[in-house]
Design brief:
Blueprint (H helix, E strand, L loop, with lengths): L20 E7 L6 H12 L3 H14 L1 E8 H17 L5 E6 L2
Antiparallel strand pairs: 1-2, 1-3
Helix pairs in contact: 1-2, 1-3
């Protein structure tokens, strides 16, 4: 007898979804020095001087600015690190996160 018995087995292929992305948002305040905001953006988000300056100015003019988009854990971690950097320096600098639509 041959081992060519074929049985109908259905393999379940798990559907893998991309993780939902979250925006890190810089909230403008009237107290944190612009130079400090640029320093935080360069340090935490690895931006260039020019990129950091543009983000800072946009937040200053519009009240908020999206800094970057990451997975939830990374976004929350970076927002917390940047906000904490401001707190340690005595500034009310604030970064928040929200899901990307």
């Amino acid at each position: 007898m041959s081992n060519n018995d074929t049985t109908n087995q259905t393999k379940t292929i798990p559907k893998v979804e991309r993780p939902r992305l979250h925006k890190v948002i810089l909230v403008n305040d009237d107290f944190t020095p612009r130079e400090f905001v640029v320093t935080v953006l360069k340090s935490v988000f690895r931006m260039t001087e020019e990129q950091s300056y543009k983000v800072m100015v946009t937040a200053h003019q519009r009240g908020v600015c999206v800094v970057a988009v990451f997975t939830r854990d990374v976004a929350e971690s970076k927002a917390t690190a940047a906000t904490d950097m401001g707190r340690r320096a005595g500034h009310p600098l604030m970064f928040t996160t929200e899901p990307e639509e």
